[in-house]
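User: quick one, fold this
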Amino acid sequence: MVIFPGSIYAEIEQLQDEHTEIDEDVRDWEFSEDAIEIPAFPDLDKLQKVQIDSSFGGMSFYIDPASLKIGRDEVVLVTTVITSARGARNILFEGFRCDTREYKTLAYGTTNNSFYEVPNAQWKEIRRTTGTTQDFRRELVTTYFCDITRLPLARDEILRQIKYPVFRDDDGRMF
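Assistant:
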């Protein structure tokens, strides 16, 4: 086959060469986590309600907008408050990775309105479960925190998405 300068074949070959260079850069990339600062305990009067699948038997989900931050490492950090129908409350400060669909619980809220920092917190896979309270993390990532290319949304977009949700499945399809 003869390739003429300026032909489509020459352009394709150039694009393939450029793609190979990008792939080498991607292989060399390593995730480097930012230092984490535990936020102030949330003001329960300023929480923002998050619409999560109703199959959780009377649980209500909230985030603390004051704690919401997207790090340089692209980790979404946020305090989540889960309240049962009887008023029991779990408060979690967690990090979410959009690219790998993982979370890390960094601190738990205590009864004396402070956080207990989790020593040696580890990243865990956000698994698809059905009808359990653990599903809220998957919904936070797929519906509120991340775009369909698995990049975090900007802080203002996350807050807008919480106010006016557009629901997506794990593959980014709207439903």
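User: anything notable?
Assistant: The mean pLDDT is 83.
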